[in-house]
Specification:
112 residues; mainly beta; 1 helix
Length: 112
């Protein structure tokens, strides 16, 4: 399923000579290669908030059963009580402003 996503990140430890990128497993986020990562820009309200533009990604979808309040808040298939859920693996990384990109050494490590 294709969908538009945008990132908003709070990154208080990013230095003035650095920028924030989103790198992930899908091709639109570089396939774990920083050279193809999505760059974020400082938010209009200023640092430490960072924003990306919208990007269309192909999200794998799996279905899960729902009940209770969640069901009333989401548009779901009323006949079977299921909702589509997508998972997107990514990391926020602070890189030097002059970075040309390298591969993320351990994409399973959630630390920036």
């Amino acid at each position: 399923m294709k969908g538009l996503i945008a990132f908003v990140a709070h990154c208080p430890e990013v230095r003035e000579n650095q920028r924030v990128v989103v790198v992930g497993e899908c091709p639109e986020l570089g396939g774990w290669d920083l050279g193809g990562a999505l760059s974020l820009a400082p938010a209009p309200c200023g640092r430490p908030w960072w924003l990306s533009s919208q990007v269309e990604v192909n999200l794998p979808e799996c279905t899960m059963g729902v009940s209770g309040d969640f069901e009333s808040e989401m548009e779901i298939d009323q006949e079977v009580g299921r909702v589509g859920v997508s998972k997107l693996n990514f990391r926020l990384v602070a890189v030097p402003n002059s970075s040309n990109g390298v591969e993320v050494s351990d994409p399973d490590n959630p630390c920036v």
